[in-house]
Design goal:
The protein is an alpha/beta fold. The protein has two domains: about 240 residues, Aspartate Aminotransferase, domain 2 (3-Layer(aba) Sandwich), CATH 3.40.640; about 100 residues, Aspartate Aminotransferase, domain 1. It is about 35% helix and about 15% strand. It contains nine helices and 15 strands. It has a seven-stranded mixed beta sheet with strand order 2-12-11-10-7-3-4. Strand 8 and strand 9 form a beta hairpin. The radius of gyration is 21 Å and the shape is globular. About 45% of the residues are buried. Keywords: Amino-acid biosynthesis, Aminotransferase, Cytoplasm, Pyridoxal phosphate, Pyridoxine biosynthesis, Serine biosynthesis, Transferase. Pathway: Amino-acid biosynthesis; L-serine biosynthesis; L-serine from 3-phospho-D-glycerate: step 2/3; Cofactor biosynthesis; pyridoxine 5'-phosphate biosynthesis; pyridoxine 5'-phosphate from D-erythrose 4-phosphate: step 3/5. Catalyzes the reversible conversion of 3-phosphohydroxypyruvate to phosphoserine and of 3-hydroxy-2-oxo-4-phosphonooxybutanoate to phosphohydroxythreonine. Its main location: cytoplasm.
Length: about 350
């Protein structure tokens, strides 16, 4: 195989067209005979870049005008702490819906800053299934309700919105942002690390409704204070300018492809092709209920640790990189984010067929 496909869960592959443009502009951005990494983040050229990036992102994701978009640092883990610092108010506690490793990690971090109640919505039976999502009877008791719609480790995705009445719904969309359209107005806050669908590691996007800004607890560090960041264009310190620039190129690339509607169609087609193969196979299995199978992270196993290890080793030698499952779960995981072409999924299935034929007893 001459072409390499990167199935890493993050940092993940980026669109080749974006990387080629960045390569072309690396030493001479905007005709300035310098790199975007070397210009002032408060200079005219870079300020124009971030203004256009926000406009493009709003257009892509249909973000209403009463939402602020912050480009921050610290990854999703930073937001695990920033969210309770900014959103805990008169009710004094939050509700965390856990469905896997990352939602549980967010809940654990939040306990350092506020009182929380935690409800496990994942049913671990023969298949991983998301259970009841109607919390409208209790949600008003909390300042916000937090969940993670896509768990990268287990490959579980929640497609239906939790019912929370008039409560503030918060979502960690690090691994499925821009993969399909969502109604932003149903959320109080959405946050996402960039390193899966938005750009490189090092920058984090927060979409927050304006009425939720300005209520941070007094001891909130300024770098985590949404009000301070919003009033300073996300630049109270020097931002990761190169990562911001690459995100801006990704936004333009996705618009050129046809926007999130077209991306969602492609993601559905890629995931269906891979899951259809898994479903007919007697060698591999996926242990997630069909209604909760992730479009972004497809987990599978042979149920034999030695064969799994052999699969990963031979796949890597054949140009199919980073298919080893997370250490928490084992097995294999193919992350097929926006930038993964159909060609990559087809190449993976061809290898899986060959490996199955050679190792099926």
């Amino acid at each position: 195989m001459s072409k390499v496909f990167n199935f890493s869960a993050g940092p993940a592959m980026m669109p080749s067209a974006v990387l080629e443009q960045a390569q072309k502009e690396l030493l001479n951005w905007q005709g300035l005979d310098t790199s975007v990494m070397e210009v002032s983040h408060r200079g005219k050229a870079f300020m124009e870049l971030i203004t256009q990036a926000e406009q493009d992102f709003r257009q892509l994701y249909h973000i209403p005008e009463n939402y602020k978009i912050l480009f921050l640092q610290g990854g999703a883990r930073g937001q695990f702490a920033a969210i309770p610092m900014n959103l805990i108010g008169e009710k004094g506690k939050a509700l965390y819906l856990t469905s896997g490793h990352w939602s549980a990690t967010a809940a654990k971090e939040a306990r350092n800053f506020c009182e929380i109640d935690e409800i496990n919505i994942l049913q671990d039976k023969a298949e991983l299934t998301v259970g009841e999502l109607d919390f409208s009877a209790i949600a008003d008791n909390y300042d916000y309700v937090h969940y993670c719609p896509n768990e990268t480790i287990s490959g579980v995705e929640i497609f239906d919105l939790p019912k929370v009445g008039d409560a503030v719904l918060v979502a960690d969309m690090s691994s499925n942002i821009l993969s399909r359209q969502v109604d932003i107005s149903k959320f109080g806050l959405i946050y996402a690390g960039a390193q899966k669908n938005l750009g490189p590691a090092g920058i984090t996007i927060v979409i927050v409704r304006e009425d939720l800004i300005g209520k941070a607890r007094k001891d909130t560090p300024s770098i985590w204070n949404y009000d301070i960041q919003a009033k300073n264009d996300s630049m109270i310190n020097t931002p990761p300018t190169f990562a911001w620039y690459l995100c801006s190129l990704v936004f333009k690339h996705l618009l050129w492809l046809g926007g999130v509607k077209e991306i969602a169609k492609r993601n559905q087609e890629k995931a269906k092709l891979l899951y259809d193969y898994l479903d007919q196979s007697k060698f591999y299995c996926n242990k997630v209920a069909k209604e909760n199978r992730s479009l972004m992270n497809v987990t599978f196993t042979t149920d034999n640790d030695e064969l799994n290890a052999k699969f990963v080793l031979e796949a890597t030698a054949n140009g199919l990189q980073a298919l080893k499952g997370h250490k928490v779960l084992g097995g294999m995981r193919a992350s097929i984010y926006n930038a993964m072409p159909m060609e990559g999924v087809q190449a993976l299935i061809e290898f899986m067929q060959k490996f199955e034929q050679e190792n099926l007893k």
